[in-house]
C-alpha cells in the first residue's frame, strides 16, 4: 500500500505505464482521488486499463475490476445490483475511454441508465482509440488526423463530425450528466463531488488530452485542455434531467487556431496539400479551420457560453490561491477489503 | 487466505523515473522587487508571511535587511514597486504600505530585535554618523556580537532623517522609536561628538579595530556667480534643519525656492506651512514630458510634487536664476530666465540660460536647494590613506543618495567590516538565486485585485502626518496581491496536475518523487510563479 502522500490517497498510484504527460492518467487520478478508495471501480478495456495493470502489477489502491471493451456498464450494473441487494451502498464507478463509451459501450451504457442503476459512469474522452494505436472513434473531431483518417491528397483527416454523446445521454432523462476537463480542476472537483451526492445513473465526460494521439508536447496537456474550453470547442456544462442547469462562461473566446496549432493531429490544416472535396464540401485546410471555428461558434451559441448569467467563468475557475483552494478529502481511508 | 486469490503486486515496484530525459526541480528565484530595493530586502518572503497574517515573522524577515521599516514605509521612494512584476498585470503591489504597517505594528507591540549569535566578539567597531547608514551598519554588527559605538556630532540621532525630513512626512516619534529599538541591541551612542575636530581620527584608529564612516552629505552646495550677501537667503538643508529642530522662523509673504530635488520640494512645503506664497524655480521639465530621458525631468518624486501642488506650491519649470534683485540689503525678488541646456560645455551640471528671456519674480526670501556635498573636514585621511578596516558608506560614499540606499550600504559595510576583522571574504547571501521576469509567470492563474492606496489627509496646514497608514484588512489584501514571483506559494497546481503522482505534498511543501517522475514538464509549465525548472538529465 502506497502511503507516500499524507494529503491524498493515490487511488491510482505511481509506476503506471501511461505515456509521459498523459491527460487520461491525470484525469483518472483526479476523479478517483476525489471519490476515494471506498468504492468499486469497473474499467472497460482501453489505455487506462492497460497502463494501470501490467505483469501482475496494479496501480489501483481500491477495488477494481476489468470487464471487456463493450460491457463495463453491464458489469457495473450487476455489481451495483448485488451490493444493493445486500443493503450495501458502496459507490460503483465505471471508467471507460471514448471508444468504450461513444461506440462499442454505448448500448450497455444506455441500458444501465434506462434501468436506473446507481452508478457514476466516467468517460475519459481522448477522442480516438488510443490504446490500439490512434484509430478514429465517433468522438474524434472533424478534420483530425488519425491512423484510420490520414490526411493526404484526397482527405483533410476525419470526414465526419464528433458525436454529441452528451445529448444522447441526457435524452435518457437521467439525474446528472456533465462535462469537465483537467485544466479546470476546481470545476472538475465540484462536478465529481456533486455527482457523488446524487443517487441513480450519472455521467461525466472528461476531455483528456493525449500527447501521443493528439501529437502535442507532453508538457502541454493542461494548456491544450484549457484551450479546448476557451475556444468553445469543448463546452463545460451540467445537465439535470435533460435540462442544461449550468455552464462555465467564457470570459473571452479564443480563436480555434490557438488550440489547433499546438497539436500535430491538426497540422495538415496549416500546410494543406489536398485538392479533394471533403464530405462537408470544403476543399482545403483553411476552409476546415473555418469549419471548426463555425462548430465552436455554434456550441457557444447553443449553450450561451458568452452570455450565461453566472459568476463561474473561465477566468474565475482558473484562479489559484496561496495554500491551495482545497484538494482531496479522502486521506486516511483504506481500500474496502 | 483463500488459495484462489492472487495477490497482485503494485506498479510501485516499477520505477518509471527511468524514462526521464529532463527533470523538474523546485528552485527559489530572486524577484525584481528584491533586486530593486536598495536595502535588498527579501520582499517576497516578508509579504508571504504577511499574507498568512504572520505579522511578527514578516517583520523579522524584513528587518534582517532593514531595521527601519516604519521609517522606510513612509519616506522611501519605493523603487521596489517600479520593479514589481505585478505592474505588468494591473499595478504594482503597494509594498511600502505593507512595510509601514509592519514597522508601526512592531513599535506598537514592542517587538525587540534579536541577536543572531550568542557569542560576544571582542573586536570593537566605531561608526561615524548616526544616520540610516550608520544605524544599519551598527545594527548588523551588534546582531552578530560586535561591540559598536556610534559617534554623531548632533544632539539627536537619525542624521538627515531627523534634520532633513519634515514632521508631516516622518513623525519624529516614529523615527526615535525605531532608533531606540536598534540601540537596545547594546549599541553605544555618543552624541555631540564631532570626529575630526573634537575626537581625532587617529584616536579612533587606536581605540577601535575597524571604522565605518557614514557622515552623509550635509553641506549645502553654494551657487556661484551671485552676490555674497547672506541676507534673506538660506540653503535648503539649513532651512529644513532649523524647522526640524524647532527653531522659530519668520518668513515674508513671498518665498522662492531654487532647485528641483526633494530638498527643494520639502523646503517649499515647509515654507507653505509657515504661511508663505511659494514658487519653486526648477531647471528641468515636468514629470512625464521627457520619456526615456530621466535626467531631463524634475528629480523630485512625482508623489511629492503632486502633493506640493495640491498644497498650493507653484512650480516654474525649465527656469534658472540669473541674479538676486536687492534694494539695499533687502531682497525684492529674483531675475529668472529660461533654461537652454542643463549642462555647461565642460559637462558639469550648470544650467545655461537663454538671453532675452529674463523675468522678475518678486520674493522676500530665497532658499537654495541645489545639492549637498560631503564635509570631509578633519577626516581627509579616510580618503587619502585608505585602509581595509575603514569603510565609507551611505551618502558619503556617493550617489544615489536615498535612505534605503544608505541602509543597504550599512549592511554591506557591516559585511565588509566583518570580513576585514576575520580575514574572510564578505558574505552577501541570497544573490546566487536566478532572477525571474514576468515572462516566466503564468498570470491568468492569479485573481485580479485592485491596488490599495493610502489616504492623504486634507488638513495639510496642521503639520501632522499627511499620509495615513493601512489597517489590518487592507494590509492583508495588499500582501496577498503579491504574485510570489519565483517562489512556491503552495497553490497545489503541480500536485494536482502530475499524471504520475510523482509530486508529494507534505506539511512544509512539495517534493518530487524521482522514482516515478517521467519528466513530462507539466508541473513546470503550469506553475504560476515560475518556481519549477526543467533541467536536462545528462547521465
Ligand atoms: C531634505 C531631504 C529630504 C530627503 N528625503 C528623502 C526621502 O524622502 N526618502 C529618501 O529615501 N531619502 C531622502 N533623503 C536622502 C536621505 O535622507 C539620505 O540619503 C540619507 O539620510 C543618508 O544617510 P547617511 O546615513 O548616509 O547620512 P545622514 O543621514 O546624512 O547622516 C549622517 C550623520 O553623520 C553626522 N556627521 C557628519 N559628519 C560627522 C562627523 N565628522 N562626526 C560625527 N558625526 C558626523 C551628521 O550630523 C549626521 O547625523 C532626503 C534628503 C534630504 C536632504
Ligand atoms: C470487442 C473488442 N474489440 C476491439 C478490442 C481492441 N481494443 C482494445 S482497447 C481498444 C480501443 C480503446 O479505445 P478507447 O475506448 O477510446 O480508450 P483509450 O484507449 O483511448 O483510452 C480497442 C479497439 C477489444 N479489446 N475488444
Ligand atoms: S525600503 Fe524602499 S525599496 Fe525597499 S521595500 Fe521598502 S519601500 Fe521598497
Ligand atoms: S509580485 Fe511580489 S514577488 Fe513579484 S515582484 Fe511584486 S512584490 Fe515582488
Ligand atoms: S508533472 Fe509529474 S511526471 Fe511530469 S515532470 Fe512534473 S513531477 Fe514529473
Ligand atoms: S505549482 Fe504551485 S504548488 Fe507547485 S511549485 Fe508552483 S507555486 Fe508551488
Plain-language structure description:
The complex is a heterodimer of chains A (337) and B (539). Chain A is of the alpha/beta class. Chain A has 12 helices and 10 strands. Helix content of chain A is 33%, strand content 13%. In chain A, helix 1 crosses helix 7. Chain A is globular and about 60 Å long. Chain B is of the alpha/beta class and 539 residues long. Chain B has 4 domains: 10-28 and 488-536, Alpha-Beta Plaits; 34-113 and 434-479, Alpha-helical ferredoxin (Fumarate Reductase Iron-sulfur Protein, Chain B, domain 2); 125-218 and 374-422, FAD/NAD(P)-binding domain (3-Layer(bba) Sandwich), CATH 3.50.50.60; 231-371, FAD/NAD(P)-binding domain (3-Layer(bba) Sandwich). Helices cover 29% and strands 17% of the residues of chain B. In chain B, the strands form 6 sheets. Chain B has a 5-stranded parallel β-sheet with strand order 5-4-3-6-18, with helices on one face. Chain B has a 5-stranded parallel β-sheet with strand order 8-16-9-10-11. In chain B, strands 12, 13, 14 and 15 form a 4-stranded antiparallel β-sheet that branches. In chain B, a hairpin with a 2-residue loop joins strand 12 (319-327) and strand 13 (330-343). Chain B is globular. At the A-B interface, helix 1, strand 2, strand 3 and helix 9 of A face strand 1, helix 17 and helix 18 of B. Strand 3 of chain A pairs parallel with strand 1 of chain B. Flavin-adenine dinucleotide is lined by residues 75-77, 128-134, 151-154, 159-161, 164-165, 194-196, 214-216, 218, 237, 240, 262-263, 266, 379, 394-396, 401-404, 406 of chain B.
